[in-house]
Amino acid sequence: MSITKKTHKPRVRRSSQASRDNILSAAEALLLEKGPQALKLTDVAEQAGIAHATVLHHFGSIADVQTALMERMIRQLVGQILDAHRRGEDTGHRTEAGMQAMFDAFEAKGAARLAAWLELTGESRRLTMVRDAVRSVIASRAERDGTSPEVAEDQSLVGIVLAMGVGLFGRSLAELLGRPAGTARQLAQDLLRGMMVPKR
């Protein structure tokens, strides 16, 4: 009779920031695979390969994980938009690149679903950094493109609402109506481009 020893994975020591990043990456993977309702404490801990007490230690609650994940996704999106503004050769190119990055984020990364989930559960009020992130994009546009802050703010507001709507319903509504999958995104972006044409 042979006795087999159970082998345990060696524990990985991480810095506090690396541990938080690991937890948020696990939460994002679950979000993309199963949706925001799968962001439960035990599931996130299992996906991250840690004890659920470790998640609580770093975030306090699953609601804090959801908020931190949304903030991280928004930071990434703002970084992409600002990067597009810096690299753009002209106003039109910068605007188009920023718009594509925003729609990509809300449509492909699950950001629209998580934002809607936070809104429906009353947690969206916790996303205070969203305001600062949006304002940084507005300030960048106003400075680089000569757009007034009020106009840039209006365009950003409409753009975010359109991108959210496309991310949540665009594909399924187009399919319901027998239209190609990208129809809602194309129409929404055409509306946004029309709004951004300078008034004479």
Describe this structure in words.
It is a single chain. The protein has helices at 16-34, 41-48, 52-59, 62-87, 91-108, 111-120, 128-145, 149-176, 183-196. The longest helix is centred in the C-terminal third of the chain and has 28 residues, at 149-176. It is globular, with a radius of gyration of 20 Å. It is 74% helix and 0% strand. It is mainly alpha-helical and 200 residues long. It folds into two domains: 13-60, Homeodomain-like (Arc Repressor Mutant, subunit A, Orthogonal Bundle), CATH 1.10.10; 63-196. It contains nine helices and no strands. Mean pLDDT is 81; it is low at 5-9.
- Kindly estimate the percentage of residues that lie in beta strands according to DSSP: under 5%
Number of strands: 0
How is the main sheet built? Answer: none
Structural class: mainly alpha
- Oligomer class: single chain
Mean pLDDT across all amino acids: 81
Task: State the domain count.
Answer: 2
N-C termini distance? 89 Å
Q: Uncertain regions: pLDDT < 50 for 5+ in a row?
A: 5-9
Number of H- or I-type helical stretches: 9
Rounded Rg: 20 Å
Order of helices and strands: HHHHHHHHH
Helix content: over 70%
Q: What's the shape?
A: globular
Task: List the defining traits of the structure above.
9 helices; globular; Arc Repressor Mutant, subunit A; 200 residues; mainly alpha
Give me the secondary-structure topology.
Elements: H1 16-34, H2 41-48, H3 52-59, H4 62-87, H5 91-108, H6 111-120, H7 128-145, H8 149-176, H9 183-196
What's this, in brief?
With 200 residues, the protein is mainly α. The chain is built from nine helices and no strands. Helix 2 (41-48) crosses helix 3 (52-59) and helix 4 runs parallel beside helix 7 (128-145).
